[in-house]
Design a protein that fits this description.
The protein is of the alpha/beta class. Among the domains are: 123-340, ANL, N-terminal domain (Rossmann fold, 3-Layer(aba) Sandwich); 351-449, 2-Layer Sandwich (GMP Synthetase, Chain A, domain 3). It contains twelve helices and 21 strands. The chain has helices at 2-16, 33-54, 56-65, 86-91, 125-141, 160-172, 184-193, 203-215, 237-246, 360-368, 398-401, 405-423, and strands at residues 105-111, 119-124, 149-152, 175-177, 198-201, 227-231, 250-257, 262-268, 275-277, 282-287, 301-307, 318-324, 326-327, 339-340, 345-346, 351-353, 356-358, 373-384, 387-396, 428-432, 447-449. Helix 7 crosses helix 8 (203-215). It is globular and about 70 Å long. Bound molecules: 5'-O-[hydroxy(phenylacetyl)phosphoryl]adenosine (DLL). 5'-O-[hydroxy(phenylacetyl)phosphoryl]adenosine (DLL) binds at residues 111-112, 154, 160-161, 231-234, 253-258, 262-263, 320, 322, 343, 346. 5'-O-[hydroxy(phenylacetyl)phosphoryl]adenosine binds at residues 111-112, 154, 160-161, 231-234, 253-258, 262-263, 320, 322, 343, 346.
Length: 453
């Protein structure tokens, strides 16, 4: 009976997306936890059965571990299932993980791998609907609605950012401008001329747009722009502060990954105290990355996600490599779905220098703690006579770069000190000309590791 009620509530919410009837409070985000749990278990059992019956990799792994779909009797039983990793998708390229025949698949996307075979992901028509639904719920979390003018500056194409956000924004009933990434002058022109209220892009690209607007004599603070939907790469609280100080927007975080669906796995609400995971579709666990053991809520580890409803390509216990913790404290917004702490780092982003583990986000925090820097930086790792060196190239404001050698030296020292106090490493700080670090329209490339060259 309870399950039927939960399902009815969800169906109702889904039908009303994009209509005047839609109200975020009707979304499954607010289900009582016991009801949500019943729904999750029902979906988990069904998706595990589908994965076992249709994907040989899952069947083989489960057989090896002596576990079958009927063994999943409670949510805790998920820990009995094998993990899935990125290489599984590479090894089964092109379609070894598909659980639907090609004629039922309506869309493919691929993730931005650097080397080797891409990670290709598939969606049925229902999968695309659910993706739009979670995107609508994300946008509703930020307080957006019909009447908003949303510029989608994430890349369109194989990357999930553009089309994922686009479908959600359209389903919300907003006006959507699909500019995709690039052509920054035109981006600013559209922001200005069409009364854009929301921009969606990577945080690093938005910083670039802020500068571009300054160059064009456009005052971002005079625009109706009031929200930014930033994700696809780690960013810090300091970065949030920077963009909020230079514009009138509230900067919101959105999280997702191609393997699970794309953007819309989790989103901040207006309380901005972690990102709510749309748990009725994506079941989160946090594990110890060394041992694979499931950690209690609140403890930091690697996020593992299971898709509860995806038909074309179910993901069972996918190891994201993203480091976070699950927060269970009730949120003031009233949503009952759990939150993940914002993702500042990936376990594979980490680099080791002179034996010390460092994440790019630590460098960003150190830089942003010093006045006069802008959040454009690159970390260059080199090796000379067996010794690792870390150079941090940081852009400074045009005023500072002018000719005040003394001011530059002081700044250099301050940054070096800030980096030392956060990482324990002496870095060489190079203050570089404004605009000299390559800008990315998508994810920024922060680390150049030249040690193996
Ligand atoms: O980046 C999907 C996306 C598009 C998310 C637009 C948000 C907005 P992938 O290219 O497969 O998919 O990369 C996924 O990016 O595992 C994280 O390491 C990182 N990532 C995504 N969102 C965030 C975020 C898209 N908000 C990988 N904070 C993930 C930190 C993020 N890292």
């Amino acid at each position: 009976m309870k399950v039927v009620m939960a399902q009815e509530c969800i169906d109702d919410a889904r039908q009303s997306f994009g209509t005047a009837r839609f109200h975020p409070a009707s979304a499954p985000d607010f289900l009582p936890r016991p009801q949500l749990g019943i729904l999750q278990l029902q979906r988990l059992q069904s998706i595990v059965r589908r994965a076992y019956q249709r994907v040989s990799l899952y069947r083989q792994r489960m057989d090896e571990m002596g576990v079958c779909p009927e063994d999943i009797r409670s949510l805790a039983d998920i820990a009995r299932l094998p993990f899935t990793v990125k290489n599984d998708l590479r090894d089964t390229y092109p379609n070894g993980m598909f659980a639907s025949p090609m004629e039922e698949i309506v869309r493919l996307h691929a993730s931005s791998g650097t080397t080797g075979k891409p990670i290709v992901v598939a969606y049925t028509a229902d999968d695309v609907k659910i993706w739009s639904e979670v995107m609508v719920r994300s946008l509703a979390c930020y307080g957006l609605h019909r009447g908003d003018v949303i510029q989608v500056s994430y890349g369109y194409g194989l990357f999930t950012g553009g089309l994922g956000v686009h479908y959600g924004a359209e389903a919300l009933g907003a006006t959507v401008i699909p500019t995709s990434g690039g052509n920054s002058e035109r981006q600013i022109m559209f922001l200005k001329d069409f009364g854009v209220t929301v921009i969606c892009c990577t945080p690093s690209y938005f910083v670039h747009l802020v500068e571009k607007a300054q160059d064009m004599g456009v005052d971002m603070k005079q625009l109706p722009l009031r929200a930014g939907v930033f994700g696809a790469e780690p960013w810090t609280e300091a970065m949030r502060k920077y963009v909020q100080e230079h514009t009138n927007i509230r900067a919101f975080d959105i999280y997702g990954l191609s393997e699970i669906v794309g953007p819309g796995v989790a989103a901040e609400c207006e309380c901005q105290c972690g990102l709510h995971v749309f748990e009725d579709h994506f079941y989160p666990e946090v594990i110890n990355p060394e041992t694979g053991e499931v950690l209690p809520d609140g403890e930091e580890g690697e996020l593992v996600l299971t898709t509860l409803s995806k038909q074309a390509m179910p993901m069972i216990r996918y190891r994201t490599r993203d480091i976070t913790s699950l927060e269970t404290e009730p949120c003031a917004c009233g949503r009952t779905i759990r939150r993940i702490r914002r993702i500042g780092r990936r376990s594979d982003d980490m680099f080791i220098i002179r034996g010390v583990n460092i994440f790019p986000s630590q460098i960003e925090t150190a830089l942003m703690a010093v006045d006069g820097t802008v959040p454009h930086y690159q970390i260059v790792l080199t090796r000379a006579q067996g010794l690792d060196r870390m150079e941090i190239r940081v852009e400074v404001t045009p005023e500072l770069f002018s000719d005040k050698v003394g001011a530059m030296e002081t700044l250099q020292k301050k940054i070096a000190h800030s980096v030392l106090s956060i990482t324990g490493i002496h870095a060489q700080i190079s203050l570089v000309e404004p605009q000299s670090i390559p800008r990315s329209e998508g994810k920024a490339r922060r680390v150049l590791d030249q040690r193996n060259m």
